Amino acid sequence: MSRKSTKRSVTDVLTALLTAISSLIAALVLTATSATTASAASAASAASLTEVTGFGSNPGNLRMYVYRPDNAPARPAVVVAVHYCTGTGPTFYTNTEFARLADQYGFIVVYPDANVSGQCFDVSSPQALKHDGGSDPTSIAQMVRYTLRNMNADPGRVYVTGASSGAMTTNVMLGSYPDLFKAGAAFSGVPFGCFATTDGSGWNSDCSTGKISKTPQEWGDLVRNAYPGYTGPRPRMQLWHGTEDDTLSYANFGEEIKQWTNVLGVSRTPVFTDSPQANWTRTRYGSAGSQAPVEANSFQGVGHSLPESGMAARAITFFGLDGSGGTTTGPVRATGSGKCLDVPGASQTNGAQTHIWDCHGGTNQTWTSTSTQRLTVYGGAKCLDATGTTAGAKVAIWDCHGGTNQQWNRNSDGTITSVRSGLCLDVAGASTANGALVHLWNCSGGSNQQWRLG
């Protein structure tokens, strides 16, 4: 929803959205009430919302607000929380639970503010749908870069979430800036590129009414073409939508699932389905864990009114910021060769021995270092496993079971050592060739035993 339109003005857009937004605001006020009650029970915090100016190039003319809790660690995570149309950064801070959760878990929250009439973000223009192409997404990317540079934030733990226009922006940020974000949570949005226009209009009625349907490959290609040449890991996605959404049709929920399962290389057949409450269906793709590659949450009879109370906390769990795991995700690169730790043929068979291969960003090269010292792959479906305790024991994948042979120490010298044996993760024979096997070996300090995650 851009700031100019030759077919439908911002005023027209707001008219179309007004009814739905009013219900959204009502839900957010209820959320704020519960958050206020919780806050009153805890000690008062001196932290406050602060506007940041001069954060870098700002082609979207956005404003930037930051909340850094008093208990933030030296290297905090970052959550970008993007408001809906008619909202602002400060109102999203006040009326959602992300700041309270930041107090609880110690992460920074960045609140972009669409500083224009209508308060919508551009998710339509060609500039918005291209890495560093300009408009609002580039301004938001600059906010993230400023936060990493000036607040010592952890580049391996940056996430984005939003509602309505903010959910659409979440899809755009994950598509255009996979190098910045590790995961996103979109509350009532549309797929990346669905709202695209080329005539200056910020509104796409075909998309909003659910008339645009593409194959998973077509949706995935839109994302991949936003950043040509990018070969790094792709961020995970959590989706939320009500079946009675008459502002951004529920049909878009299915299209988002098509898109992000394709981008992340996982099957559209769920590996996990449950119903946390009566009207709620939750499905996970690629893994049954709480940090699956794709998670989709559908709400029967609910309109354009998400997030409701408690949903922000579930987004934080999906990000791994509540201590449940998923602290750092990306490729594990061998220093000696520059190649990546890889599961051959994208196998998910227990016992498949790992090797090194040219880095390509596939799910079989995307590893997560968890708070329990595991290195997991396929969104947590499998763990890196030391099959023995002697030099030469192969390092394979296996179902996660919590044993010490699946726990790894990431050391300051770049080595990764098995908790059970103390031996080093090693590229056999110091080879730099594709397909060179990875096993355990006595630690020697060689570059074939040095690794970098991310």
What secondary-structure arrangement, pairings included, does this model have?
Elements: H1 10-40, E1 49-52, E2 63-67, E3 78-82, H2 89-95, H3 98-105, E4 108-113, H4 135-150, E5 158-163, H5 165-176, E6 183-187, H6 205-208, H7 216-224, E7 236-242, H8 251-263, E8 272-274, E9 280-285, E10 294-299, H9 311-319, E11 328-330, E12 332-334, E13 340-342, E14 355-357, E15 367-369, E16 375-377, E17 382-386, E18 395-398, E19 408-410, E20 416-418, E21 424-427, E22 438-441, E23 451-453
Parallel strand pairs: 3-4, 3-5, 5-6, 6-7, 7-10
Antiparallel strand pairs: 1-2, 2-4, 8-9, 9-10, 11-15, 12-23, 13-14, 15-16, 16-17, 17-18, 19-20, 21-22
Characterize the structure shown.
This protein has helices at 10-40, 89-95, 98-105, 135-150, 165-176, 205-208, 216-224, 251-263, 311-319, and strands at residues 49-52, 63-67, 78-82, 108-113, 158-163, 183-187, 236-242, 272-274, 280-285, 294-299, 328-330, 332-334, 340-342, 355-357, 367-369, 375-377, 382-386, 395-398, 408-410, 416-418, 424-427, 438-441, 451-453. The protein is α+β, with helices and mostly antiparallel strands and 454 residues long. The protein has two domains: 10-324, Alpha/Beta hydrolase fold, catalytic domain (Rossmann fold, 3-Layer(aba) Sandwich), CATH 3.40.50; 329-453, Trefoil (Acidic Fibroblast Growth Factor, subunit A) (Trefoil), CATH 2.80.10. It has a ten-stranded mixed beta sheet, with helices on both faces. A five-stranded antiparallel beta sheet has the order 11-15-16-17-18, with no helix packed on it. A hairpin with a 5-residue loop joins strand 8 (272-274) and strand 9. Helix 7 (216-224) crosses helix 8 (251-263). The two termini are 33 Å apart.
